[in-house]
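TL;DR need C-alpha cells for one chain.
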Amino acid sequence: MNLRLAVPEDAMAVARVHVRAWQAAYRGLMPDDHLAGLRPQERARHYDFAGLDPTGPRTLVAVEADTVLGFATISPARDEDVRGQGELCALYVEPDCWGRGIGQALASAARSDLYRLGFRKAVLWVVAGNVRAQRFYRADGWTADERRRPRQVWSVTVDTVRYSRVLESQ
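>> reply
TL;DR here they are.
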C-alpha cells in the first residue's frame, strides 16, 4: 500500500470510498433512505484535488494496485476557538478493508502532514454514536473535548463530538 496526495483523477475513486464508508458506518445513525440515495458521481463533484493553496484542504489517499482504499483530508481548523490548530476533516476507508491498518496509516500520515505544516495541535469531529470511530480515534491518542454541536453534512443534520490531540514529530 502506498500513501500519496490525491490528484484530480482520484475524485471518483475517493467518492466511491466516501459513499460506501458512510453507508456502512452511519447505518442506524442517519436515515436509511438518505444513505441509500448517496451517489459517488454527486460526491465527486465536491472534490478539488488540483488546488495548490497551502492553506486549503489536502487529501491523502491509500492506494494498492491502483485502487484507492481510503483517504484522509486535513486543513487548518475551521472553528474560531481553535484557530491556529490543524483539523483532520475526514478519514474513511473502504469497508471491505476495515481492520487492515489502512486507517491507522492514514491517521499517522495526516498527523505528520499537519505537524510538518506547522500545527502542534489538531481537532476532528465524530458523529455522535459512531462507536467504531470513537474507539479508533481514542486508540490513536485523540480525546473528546466535550464540545458537541449539530452539523449539516450532505443535507442531514447530525450531532457531532469534537476530539483533539497534541501533534508530535514522527
